[in-house]
Every structure is written in structure tokens, then in C-alpha cells.
Design goal:
Strand order of the largest sheet: 1-2-9-6-5-3-4
Bound molecules: nicotinamide-adenine-dinucleotide, glycine
Oligomer: single chain
CATH superfamily of the largest domain: Dehydroquinate synthase-like - alpha domain
Length: 359
């Protein structure tokens, strides 16, 4: 199992991502830069009983002053009301710019805490300790932070890089299999868009059982890939959009189903199959890729079909709010091959047609 230190060349600063099995049990030295500072740990009700004590002990041993804030678990927590409660908590606790917030949990806690960091006092120090597979391979690095709006996913947000990301891959041992699956969706996405060898490795393993021992190296590989993309395009103006392969439909599904009903990573799986089919219609994606993606998702017990009841009429309004939209076009991410991708502008009306055929 690798102990990995990756430096993500973010804008405007570079930051380390430390990946180690068992890291939380020996985490204190990582917190030395926060000696004498208050560090507010934002976590949720599922993660707190499992890991908050270890993080608090590490902070105390490093001479920092930990303060714990526990929120409800789940996607609905990524909202304005919870954000306002965090601001109130920070203000009443006298938290200043030289103090820090630490996100301990999955992508929901990471995105919400990061947005609080970006905006509180115009920016406060930010540490990520991701505990889901999805957050470890994707959301904890790259600096996209956000909350949801009732009209769409992640519509209120910022680019705000953490200064430290600490990943203990042992935390995946307590994650339930549905959440593991959601993370695997994002892992398969990296293979599709950037790394044919990773995709083939996942195909060859053929099931979660055989892939699980490789999670530490897979987490490291995904972060390396994301780091390269974020370095080229930190503000999502071009290349970085490929990280949103499958996300155009995914965000619409999450919104139309009601936040939290279908997990983000599950929606991405369904969205990747649709994006492969749309890419084939546009003449960009070789037709056999759709079934190759379907097969690998099925082998890993991941969804491939839009859930019954989500009609084109229900999905299209939030699809039109996609952040990759530009004028009347929506840019979708298409595969030219497994491991190679680019964005393609599609008139909104044509996408609506594609969608009607899909459903
Ligand atoms: P999540 O944060 O809701 O966590 C999933 C569930 O697992 C929660 O109930 C949580 O309490 C529980 N949990 C977390 N760690 C655990 C552990 N180790 N053991 C047991 N239970 C644990 O979901 P997620 O899938 O991590 O994140 C989804 C969010 O991430 C979405 O809002 C999505 O939009 C966002 N996201 C952001 C980015 C980005 O770049 N910022 C990228 C991808 C996804
Ligand atoms: N998860 C997509 C991105 O970070 O750009």
C-alpha cells in the first residue's frame, strides 16, 4: 500500500495531498502549521462518532485548538440554511482569518465547508479530510466548493483551494456499499476521460471484491490525474470540463429526483452511458464504447438507466441550467476513445431531442 504525497499545483498555491492507510492514528505532525490556532472541524452525524475523536486528538497534540461542529448527514445539508448556521457559529466563536476550518466527511461536508471558507471574512484557511471514496478521488482536491440551489446542483459556489488534504484510506472500511459504488462511478469516469490503462484495470478486476485491495493506489492515481487537469485549467474554462463527463445528465437527475434520492456518483454512472450514446449520435464517440461502459458499470453493480418517472420534461429544465452552457449551446463531454475526451457544443433543442429518445 503506497504512502503518497502528491503536490497539487493549484492557483494561487500548491498544496500537499497525503494518502496513507491508518493516517488518522498518526495525524498530529500534519497539523503543526496550525499550532496555537482554532480549528473548527465540520463533520456530519455519521462520521463524527467514527473519526472526530482521532482528528481532535491529533490537533490537540499539535498544539491547535479543535472545536467540533456536527451537521445532519446527506445532500440536503449542502444548502443556504446550513451555510448560514456555520457563519453564525464561526462569528459567535470569534473565529478569525488565521484560524481554520477542517472538513471531515464526504463531498457534502467538503463542498459546504469549502464554500464557508471561501466566503467567511473573504477567505479562511481550509483543510480537507475526506472519508468517502468519492471525496478521496475527486471532490477534496481541485478547489470547487459549492452549495445547491433548489433550482440546480452546485449553482452557488467558488473556486477555493484547500491548503492541505489528508486521506486515510482505512476510512473506506466503514463506508456502506452503496456509497462505495458512488465513488467507483467517479473512478470509472477518470478511466473513461483520461486513462485507458485505469479503465482496463477496472475491467480486468471485474468486481468490487477484487478491486478493493487496490483502492489506495487508485485514489492516488485519480488525484494525480485530477491534479494535472486542475493545473492546466484551475477555473474550469476549458480542459477541466472533461471532469464533468456524465455530469450534464447526472445533475439534472439529482435535481429532478430530489437531492439525496439518487447519489451523485450513481447519477454520474447513468450520465456516462447517456453521454456515450449522445457522443455516438454526434459522430464523436465510437458506437461500441457505450456498451463497454455499460458492461463495466453492470459488473460493479452500478446503475445505467434513468430511473422510471424521470421524464424529459422533468429533466430538461435543470439541464438547461448546466454550468457548461454557453448561449443556446450546452457543452457536453464526449469520448473520442476510452481515455480520450473533449467537450462538444450541442444546441439545447438537439439535446432535448436526444433526451426524449433516451427515455
Ligand atoms: P456524502 O458527503 O453525502 O457522504 C455519503 C454518506 O456517507 C453520508 O451519509 C456520510 O455521513 C457517510 N460517510 C462519509 N464517510 C463515511 C465513512 N468513512 N464511513 C461511514 N459513513 C461515511 O456524499 P459523497 O458521495 O462523499 O459526496 C457527494 C457530494 O460531492 C455531492 O454533493 C457532489 O456534488 C459533490 N462533489 C463535489 C466535487 C467537487 O469537485 N467539489 C466533485 C464530485 C462530487
Ligand atoms: N469534479 C469536477 C471538477 O472538479 O472539476
Amino acid at each position: 500500500m503506497p504512502d503518497v504525497q502528491i503536490r497539487i499545483p493549484g492557483m494561487p498555491k500548491e498544496y500537499p495531498v497525503v494518502i496513507e492507510s491508518g493516517l488518522l492514528s498518526r495525524i498530529a505532525p500534519q497539523f503543526k502549521p496550525f499550532e496555537g490556532r482554532k480549528v473548527v472541524i465540520i463533520t456530519d452525524e455519521n462520521v463524527a462518532p467514527l473519526y472526530a475523536e482521532k482528528v481532535m486528538a491529533g490537533l490537540e497534540a499539535a498544539g491547535a485548538r479543535p472545536i467540533l461542529r456536527i451537521l445532519p448527514a446527506g445532500e440536503t445539508t449542502k444548502c443556504m440554511e446550513q451555510l448560514e448556521r456555520i457563519y453564525d457559529f464561526l462569528l459567535s466563536g470569534g473565529i478569525t482569518r488565521t484560524d481554520a476550518l477542517l472538513a471531515l466527511g464526504g463531498g457534502v461536508i467538503g463542498d459546504l465547508t469549502g464554500y464557508a471558507c471561501a466566503t467567511y471574512l473573504r477567505g479562511i484557511r481550509f483543510i480537507q479530510v475526506p472519508t468517502t471514496l468519492l471525496a478521496q478521488v475527486d471532490s477534496s482536491v481541485g478547489g470547487k466548493v459549492a452549495i445547491n440551489h433548489p433550482r440546480g446542483k452546485n449553482l452557488l459556489g467558488a473556486f477555493y483551494q484547500p491548503e492541505l488534504v489528508l486521506i486515510d484510506t482505512d476510512t473506506l472500511n466503514t463506508l456502506d456499499q452503496r456509497q462505495v459504488g458512488a465513488g467507483l462511478g467517479e473512478v470509472i469516469k477518470y478511466g473513461c476521460i483520461l486513462d485507458a490503462a485505469l479503465f482496463e484495470q477496472i475491467e480486468a478486476c471485474g468486481s468490487r471484491q477484487f478491486l478493493a485491495p487496490l483502492y489506495p493506489e487508485i485514489v492516488a492515481r485519480c488525484i494525480e490525474l485530477k491534479g494535472q487537469v486542475v493545473y492546466e485549467d484551475p477555473y474550469d474554462r476549458g480542459l477541466r470540463m472533461i471532469l464533468n463527463f456524465g455530469h450534464t445528465l447526472a445533475h439534472a437527475i439529482e435535481n429532478a429526483a430530489g437531492y439525496g434520492e439518487i447519489l451523485h456518483g450513481e447519477a454520474v454512472c447513468i450520465g456516462m452511458v447517456a453521454a456515450a450514446a449522445w457522443g455516438a449520435r454526434l459522430g464523436v464517440t465510437p458506437p461500441e464504447i457505450e456498451s463497454r461502459i455499460r458492461q463495466v458499470l453492470t459488473a460493479y453493480a452500478l446503475p445505467t438507466e434513468v430511473p422510471a418517472g424521470l421524464t424529459a420534461e422533468k429533466l430538461f429544465p435543470s439541464l438547461a441550467l448546466d454550468k457548461k452552457a454557453s448561449g443556446k449551446d450546452i457543452r457536453i463531454v464526449c469520448l473520442e476513445a476510452i481515455g480520450r475526451s473533449r467537450t462538444v457544443p450541442v444546441p439545447a433543442a438537439r439535446l432535448k431531442e436526444f433526451m426524449a429518445k433516451l427515455l
